[in-house]
Amino acid sequence: MKRCIQYLLISLIFSMASASITRCGEPFDFDDAFDSIADFANNQEHIAVRANATDSAGILFDIVNATGALDSTLINGLYVRTNPLRRKTLSSLSLFQTPHYQFGQNLDLFVTYNQTYAGHYHKDKDSIDSAINFNQTSIIETVDQLGLDEVDIPDILGLFRPIKSQEHKLAWVLNYANSYQEYQYSFTLPFVYQVNTFFLTMDERKRIRDVSLFDPQDEWAFARQHLISDKLGIADLQISVERLLKEGTLYRFHGGIDFTVPTAFAFKKGIMGRYYNKKNTAPSFSIHDDLLSPYGDGDQQTALINAEKLAFSVIDRMTSIFVENELGNDGHFGLGVFARGVMDLRPSITLTSKTKFEVLLPADEQRFMIQPITRSEMGAVKALPANTNPEATVKLDELSALAKRYFFPESFKTQVFPGFIVQSTSKLSFHKNQWTTFIGNDFWFCSKEKFLKINAPSTLKDQLDTQAAKRGYAISSTIFVGVEKRRPHSDWDLGVVASFCPFTYGIGGDYSLAFTLAREF
After folding, report:
1. Which of 149, 200, 295, 296 is most deeply buried (CB count within 10 A of its CB)?
2. pLDDT in tens, 264-313
């Protein structure tokens, strides 16, 4: 049965949009699908002669004697990249770079909402088709040959190309600062509720609903189970120490160091969605035992249930790779040096700037790695005999192992060196009576990652596509504006700050809104 196994495997991906696949509002008829495959198989050349087109042994022989049809699909691979999406930590947001306080004791509370509205899977690509291979022309040819007129593969795959990734953070950030002799020190600790998810716009979701193959009835339940990861806890602690180095009539110049301490810890995971453990191994999967044997025995419902379980597992693996994120900086300790200057351009106008260079030290992370399927591996499977049912079963088990690699990149404990970060922030403030308004720009750059050690079997290391698991360099430019108000005869400041990114590369664009409450003692 030429190319039928391609249809069998790839059709499972269609469950990405819904918990159930339907045809014209009715459950997808696996009997029709397998009969179409079997009818198609009757016209193909195969070694073993079978008595019935729909029995499991007959289908088994058809598949294993048409393995050449798998070459273009399995060798091309499903995943193009498996690097986690790059993001900023809360402490790197622009409102924390230019504190308003002078030397002395200060207590600040920030209530901030930050959203990365489109994470970049690679370079300047924010759609999942830069990480997942949708250009499987052999799939289209397969379905055309099977005569499944209801399935328009180019249109179906096109519905999923725009899938993006978002991160939402609602944080309560405490900042305490005080001085000791000529030094000023501060501690910043965020309490965070974080939500990461795949998402489509309303128009994109409507186009999926309008396709008769998909049933949107349980869309929200499906999203909670397979597309959303959320957690509540604390993020990394930021410690800063600075000193006044030089002071003139109209300016002050400070130098200092800061530390990012990996204190991130989740009190609760899976409040609205789920937690996806990156250490989870791929599920067991056998084309023969899970799909063909139940169907051949007349148990189409079991075959459907097993197919849906596999499809959901594939989706969960994608979510683990591209959506699941920790609250902090993935366990990396950061060491930075900075210079901060304050210049009084006029009595009512102040220019504040800060430039920081930070090195992120190596730490262990779980990284998913692609193990490409080679032509020699496909050739070895094709060379296996399949003249008897046991031989065909063995051959199909080998194909199942390759399909498992295709759908489920494995994760390995990897020592990652994130590199260094350069950040430069400038803020122009205007003072009038008890009001201060300001506008500023923040530039952020992060270098490429390096892998120092991969905890994988030595026989496997050379086969892993490590480059596809690394994050490249990233740049973002943020504009922020704000206003602060101090009541007469009061030590309290109230303020609001908003920011957005007009330019990003290698990292998603984001915006923030923060309310500030500050007290000087």
Report:
1. 295
2. 999 999 999 999 999 888 888 887 787 777 777 777 788 778 877 888 88
Q: What secondary structure, in 3-state letters, does 149-192 show?
A: CCCCHHHHHHHHCCCEEEEEEEEEEEEEEEEECCEEEEEEEEEE
pLDDT, tens digit, 9 for 90 and up, residues 479-490: 999 998 877 666
Beta strand spans in 262-333 (E):
265-269
490 Cβ contact partners less than 8 Å away, ≥ 6 residues apart = none
Model's pTM, two decimal places?
0.82
Q: Which of 286, 285, 292 is nearest to 56 (CA)?
A: 292
For residue 474, what are the contacts with CB-CB under 8 A and spacing of at least 6? 86, 120, 444, 445, 446, 504, 505, 506, 507
For residue 389, how many C-alpha atoms fall within 13 Å in the half-sphere facing its CB? Answer: 9
Q: Rounded to an integer, what distance in angstroms lies between the CA atom of residue 218 and that of residue 101?
A: 51
What φ, ψ does residue 373 adopt, rounded to 5°?
Answer: -90, 125
Return d(Cα 154, Cα 139) in angstroms, integer. 9
CA gyration radius for the chain? Answer: 28
Is residue 37 within a helix (H) or strand (E), and if so which, with residue range? helix 30-42
